[in-house]
Design brief:
By secondary structure, the chain is an all-alpha fold. Helix content is 75%, strand content 0%.
């Protein structure tokens, strides 16, 4: 019950905020949009795990390291290549 009241108050505040923002001049709304987008991008990027670095790749087993770069598929043709492979294998 208390949680419903908190949710209701937050929704009312959000609705009031939206109404106030819509009353702002267009330039100020664009500035707000850019600020919000930058904030969202920053939070999103911080939640993405970092790409493997040479240091982390060097921790791989030597056999696994030897496989790096052996296969390079063009993502646009990879499905077609695989279909052709299966057709040749099973025909």
């Amino acid at each position: 019950m208390a949680n419903d009241k908190v949710t209701s108050r937050v929704m009312i505040k959000l609705q009031e905020l939206q109404e106030q923002v819509l009353e702002l001049p267009i330039q100020e709304r664009w500035t707000l949009v850019q600020t919000l987008l930058a904030s969202i991008q920053q939070e999103t990027l911080s939640s993405i795990p970092p790409q493997p670095t040479l240091e982390t790749l060097s921790e791989l087993d030597p056999w696994t390291q030897s496989l790096m770069g052996v296969i390079s598929l063009d993502s646009q043709n990879s499905e077609e290549i695989y279909v052709n492979y299966l057709e040749e294998k099973y025909s």
